[in-house]
What does this fold into?
Amino acid sequence: MFVFWRRNPDPVFSALYSCLRFISVNADGVARLAYTPAAMDAGTPDEELMQRFSGGDASAFDALYSRHRGGVFRYLLRQCGNRAAAEELFQDIWMNLVQARSRYKVEAKFSTYLYTLAHNRLMDHFRRRKGVDLVSLDQDEDDPLELPASATLQPERAAESREQAARLLSLVDALPAAQREAFLLQEEGGLSLEEIAQVTGSNREAVKSRLRYALNKLRDGMKDYL
It folds into this structure.
Protein backbone atom coordinates (compact mmCIF):
# COMPACT_ATOMS: atom_id res chain seq x y z
CA MET A 1 0.00 0.00 0.00
CA PHE A 2 1.26 3.45 -0.91
CA VAL A 3 1.95 5.61 2.15
CA PHE A 4 1.76 9.39 1.84
CA TRP A 5 5.06 10.77 3.09
CA ARG A 6 6.31 14.29 2.58
CA ARG A 7 9.90 13.29 1.94
CA ASN A 8 8.92 10.60 -0.54
CA PRO A 9 5.79 11.86 -2.33
CA ASP A 10 4.29 10.27 -5.41
CA PRO A 11 5.86 12.46 -8.14
CA VAL A 12 3.03 12.03 -10.64
CA PHE A 13 0.26 12.81 -8.17
CA SER A 14 2.15 15.74 -6.63
CA ALA A 15 2.74 17.20 -10.08
CA LEU A 16 -0.94 16.82 -10.91
CA TYR A 17 -2.05 18.61 -7.76
CA SER A 18 0.59 21.28 -8.30
CA CYS A 19 -1.11 22.22 -11.57
CA LEU A 20 -3.99 23.60 -9.48
CA ARG A 21 -1.69 26.40 -8.36
CA PHE A 22 -1.41 27.47 -11.99
CA ILE A 23 -4.72 26.43 -13.53
CA SER A 24 -8.06 27.53 -12.19
CA VAL A 25 -11.39 26.38 -13.57
CA ASN A 26 -14.04 28.99 -14.10
CA ALA A 27 -17.54 29.07 -15.53
CA ASP A 28 -16.50 30.33 -18.96
CA GLY A 29 -13.88 27.59 -19.37
CA VAL A 30 -10.90 29.93 -19.70
CA ALA A 31 -7.52 28.61 -18.61
CA ARG A 32 -6.05 31.02 -16.10
CA LEU A 33 -2.70 31.38 -14.41
CA ALA A 34 -2.84 31.67 -10.63
CA TYR A 35 -0.24 32.70 -8.08
CA THR A 36 2.01 29.92 -6.81
CA PRO A 37 4.58 30.03 -3.99
CA ALA A 38 6.86 27.90 -6.17
CA ALA A 39 7.17 30.84 -8.56
CA MET A 40 8.65 33.02 -5.85
CA ASP A 41 12.39 33.32 -5.29
CA ALA A 42 13.23 31.51 -2.05
CA GLY A 43 15.51 34.35 -0.98
CA THR A 44 15.57 35.26 2.69
CA PRO A 45 14.11 32.66 5.09
CA ASP A 46 10.59 33.39 6.31
CA GLU A 47 11.68 33.44 9.93
CA GLU A 48 14.26 36.15 9.25
CA LEU A 49 11.70 38.17 7.33
CA MET A 50 9.26 37.97 10.22
CA GLN A 51 11.96 39.11 12.64
CA ARG A 52 12.76 42.02 10.35
CA PHE A 53 9.07 42.89 10.19
CA SER A 54 8.92 42.77 14.00
CA GLY A 55 11.71 45.33 13.97
CA GLY A 56 9.76 47.68 11.71
CA ASP A 57 10.73 46.59 8.19
CA ALA A 58 7.46 46.83 6.25
CA SER A 59 9.04 45.41 3.10
CA ALA A 60 9.65 42.15 4.97
CA PHE A 61 5.91 41.82 5.53
CA ASP A 62 5.31 42.43 1.83
CA ALA A 63 7.65 39.54 1.01
CA LEU A 64 5.93 37.20 3.47
CA TYR A 65 2.50 38.16 2.18
CA SER A 66 3.55 37.60 -1.43
CA ARG A 67 4.96 34.17 -0.63
CA HIS A 68 2.06 32.83 1.40
CA ARG A 69 -1.10 34.64 0.36
CA GLY A 70 -2.05 32.11 -2.33
CA GLY A 71 -1.68 29.01 -0.19
CA VAL A 72 -3.42 30.51 2.83
CA PHE A 73 -6.36 31.75 0.78
CA ARG A 74 -6.84 28.42 -1.01
CA TYR A 75 -6.65 26.60 2.34
CA LEU A 76 -9.41 28.83 3.73
CA LEU A 77 -11.57 28.74 0.62
CA ARG A 78 -11.49 24.96 0.29
CA GLN A 79 -12.17 24.50 3.98
CA CYS A 80 -14.95 27.02 4.59
CA GLY A 81 -16.50 26.82 1.13
CA ASN A 82 -17.55 30.45 0.84
CA ARG A 83 -15.49 33.06 -0.95
CA ALA A 84 -16.79 36.03 1.03
CA ALA A 85 -16.14 34.23 4.32
CA ALA A 86 -12.69 33.12 3.13
CA GLU A 87 -11.78 36.70 2.24
CA GLU A 88 -12.88 37.94 5.67
CA LEU A 89 -10.93 35.19 7.43
CA PHE A 90 -7.93 35.89 5.23
CA GLN A 91 -7.87 39.55 6.26
CA ASP A 92 -8.31 38.63 9.93
CA ILE A 93 -5.37 36.23 9.84
CA TRP A 94 -2.97 38.73 8.36
CA MET A 95 -4.21 41.41 10.75
CA ASN A 96 -3.60 39.02 13.65
CA LEU A 97 -0.09 38.46 12.34
CA VAL A 98 0.55 42.19 12.20
CA GLN A 99 -0.79 42.71 15.73
CA ALA A 100 1.33 39.85 17.11
CA ARG A 101 4.58 40.92 15.43
CA SER A 102 6.16 42.32 18.60
CA ARG A 103 5.60 39.00 20.41
CA TYR A 104 6.96 36.82 17.62
CA LYS A 105 9.72 34.36 18.52
CA VAL A 106 11.30 31.77 16.27
CA GLU A 107 10.03 28.61 17.93
CA ALA A 108 8.96 26.82 14.75
CA LYS A 109 8.90 27.38 10.99
CA PHE A 110 7.07 30.55 10.06
CA SER A 111 4.67 28.55 7.90
CA THR A 112 3.71 26.47 10.95
CA TYR A 113 3.08 29.67 12.90
CA LEU A 114 1.04 31.20 10.06
CA TYR A 115 -1.12 28.14 9.43
CA THR A 116 -1.73 27.78 13.16
CA LEU A 117 -3.21 31.29 13.06
CA ALA A 118 -5.26 30.25 10.02
CA HIS A 119 -6.46 27.00 11.61
CA ASN A 120 -7.46 28.70 14.86
CA ARG A 121 -9.35 31.45 13.04
CA LEU A 122 -11.08 28.85 10.89
CA MET A 123 -12.14 26.87 13.96
CA ASP A 124 -13.60 30.04 15.48
CA HIS A 125 -15.54 30.56 12.27
CA PHE A 126 -16.92 27.01 12.34
CA ARG A 127 -17.92 27.26 16.00
CA ARG A 128 -19.87 30.44 15.31
CA ARG A 129 -21.57 29.08 12.23
CA LYS A 130 -21.98 25.50 13.52
CA GLY A 131 -21.81 24.17 9.99
CA VAL A 132 -19.60 23.96 6.95
CA ASP A 133 -20.65 24.57 3.36
CA LEU A 134 -18.94 22.80 0.52
CA VAL A 135 -16.73 24.84 -1.78
CA SER A 136 -18.07 25.69 -5.21
CA LEU A 137 -15.77 24.27 -7.87
CA ASP A 138 -16.46 26.91 -10.48
CA GLN A 139 -14.95 29.77 -8.48
CA ASP A 140 -11.71 31.33 -9.66
CA GLU A 141 -8.45 31.15 -7.76
CA ASP A 142 -7.30 34.34 -6.09
CA ASP A 143 -5.81 37.03 -8.32
CA PRO A 144 -5.74 35.02 -11.55
CA LEU A 145 -4.01 36.32 -14.64
CA GLU A 146 -5.21 35.54 -18.15
CA LEU A 147 -2.84 33.31 -20.09
CA PRO A 148 -1.58 34.90 -23.32
CA ALA A 149 -2.43 33.10 -26.56
CA SER A 150 1.20 32.05 -27.03
CA ALA A 151 1.51 30.53 -23.56
CA THR A 152 2.85 27.03 -23.03
CA LEU A 153 -0.64 25.67 -22.47
CA GLN A 154 -2.02 25.02 -25.95
CA PRO A 155 -5.82 24.69 -26.33
CA GLU A 156 -5.89 20.90 -26.11
CA ARG A 157 -3.55 20.83 -23.11
CA ALA A 158 -5.51 23.65 -21.46
CA ALA A 159 -8.75 21.71 -21.86
CA GLU A 160 -7.15 18.58 -20.43
CA SER A 161 -5.71 20.53 -17.50
CA ARG A 162 -9.10 22.10 -16.74
CA GLU A 163 -10.72 18.67 -16.77
CA GLN A 164 -8.08 17.23 -14.46
CA ALA A 165 -8.21 20.23 -12.14
CA ALA A 166 -12.00 20.11 -11.89
CA ARG A 167 -11.93 16.38 -11.13
CA LEU A 168 -9.23 16.72 -8.49
CA LEU A 169 -10.93 19.70 -6.84
CA SER A 170 -14.17 17.74 -6.61
CA LEU A 171 -12.32 14.85 -4.96
CA VAL A 172 -10.56 17.15 -2.49
CA ASP A 173 -13.88 18.80 -1.70
CA ALA A 174 -15.44 15.38 -0.97
CA LEU A 175 -12.78 14.34 1.55
CA PRO A 176 -13.75 14.26 5.25
CA ALA A 177 -12.86 17.58 6.87
CA ALA A 178 -9.89 16.28 8.89
CA GLN A 179 -8.39 14.51 5.88
CA ARG A 180 -8.95 17.53 3.65
CA GLU A 181 -7.29 19.87 6.13
CA ALA A 182 -4.26 17.61 6.54
CA PHE A 183 -3.94 17.34 2.77
CA LEU A 184 -4.23 21.09 2.22
CA LEU A 185 -1.78 21.92 5.00
CA GLN A 186 0.75 19.64 3.36
CA GLU A 187 0.17 20.68 -0.24
CA GLU A 188 -0.57 24.38 0.25
CA GLY A 189 1.47 25.05 3.38
CA GLY A 190 4.30 22.62 2.73
CA LEU A 191 4.06 21.36 6.31
CA SER A 192 5.55 18.11 7.58
CA LEU A 193 3.60 15.49 9.53
CA GLU A 194 4.86 16.89 12.81
CA GLU A 195 4.01 20.46 11.81
CA ILE A 196 0.50 19.51 10.71
CA ALA A 197 0.02 17.76 14.06
CA GLN A 198 1.17 20.93 15.83
CA VAL A 199 -1.18 23.15 13.82
CA THR A 200 -4.22 20.91 14.29
CA GLY A 201 -3.57 19.82 17.88
CA SER A 202 -3.31 16.19 16.81
CA ASN A 203 -0.48 13.68 16.78
CA ARG A 204 1.88 12.49 14.08
CA GLU A 205 0.33 9.05 13.61
CA ALA A 206 -3.19 10.47 13.31
CA VAL A 207 -1.99 12.96 10.70
CA LYS A 208 -0.13 10.23 8.81
CA SER A 209 -3.29 8.11 8.77
CA ARG A 210 -5.45 11.00 7.54
CA LEU A 211 -3.02 11.76 4.74
CA ARG A 212 -2.80 8.10 3.74
CA TYR A 213 -6.58 7.75 3.52
CA ALA A 214 -6.88 11.08 1.69
CA LEU A 215 -4.24 10.17 -0.86
CA ASN A 216 -5.71 6.72 -1.46
CA LYS A 217 -9.11 8.29 -2.17
CA LEU A 218 -7.64 10.93 -4.44
CA ARG A 219 -5.47 8.43 -6.31
CA ASP A 220 -8.44 6.12 -6.80
CA GLY A 221 -10.53 8.99 -8.13
CA MET A 222 -7.75 10.17 -10.45
CA LYS A 223 -6.68 6.74 -11.70
CA ASP A 224 -7.67 7.62 -15.26
CA TYR A 225 -5.13 10.48 -15.24
CA LEU A 226 -2.20 8.83 -13.44
